[in-house]
Amino acid sequence: MSHNIPDRVKRRVEDILSRYPRREAALLPVLSALQEERGFLSHSDEEWAADTLGIPPAKVREVVTFYSLFRRKPAGRHHLQVCTNVSCALNGADGLLSHLRKKLGIAEGETSADGRFSLSSVECLGHCDEAPCLMVNDEHYGRLDRRALDELLEKLE
Ligand code: FES
């Protein structure tokens, strides 16, 4: 099967693999490199990763579906991922999420019609001391309230 992986991505993956004692151990950075190319991981990307690392496709699928940082369909230009785990929930994550739903006109798992925003709720982002927090693409933002969130959205627009 042809996977249509650009040569620059293959070179990057070879570089990643050269830093790991076992190919399988490089699964997360390899998936990140593939996702950076198109903004999501296709079925073909997953198969290519499995072939390249010598592991079963089901193992790749498990990892892709477990970690919220991996996407299986295209996201908007700004992917807002709101943490709803314990620390963030106790500090107002639900309110932030409903504010975003209203303001953007989308629910979790959806992308705005203009393709600018996607919204997700996710598990702990590892910044519990800054709860409530979210990520926009790869950037983390903490200690948010509605006003800070509105300012952030304006900056993103
Ligand atoms: S609970 Fe939200 S970052 Fe940990």
Characterization of this structure:
- This protein is of the alpha+beta class and 157 residues long.
- The protein has two domains: 7-66, Orthogonal Bundle (Arc Repressor Mutant, subunit A); 78-156, Glutaredoxin (3-Layer(aba) Sandwich).
- Helix content is 46%, strand content 11%.
- It is built from seven helices and four strands, in the order H-H-H-H-E-H-H-E-E-E-H.
- It has helices at residues 7-17, 27-38, 43-53, 57-66, 86-90, 93-104, 146-156; strands spanning 78-83, 117-122, 134-136, 139-141.
- Strands 2-1-3-4 form a four-stranded mixed beta sheet, covered by helices on one side.
- Strand 3 (134-136) and strand 4 form a beta hairpin.
- The radius of gyration is 17 Å and the shape is elongated.
- The N and C termini lie far apart (40 Å).
- FE2/S2 (inorganic) cluster binds at residues 83, 85-88, 124-128, 131, 133.
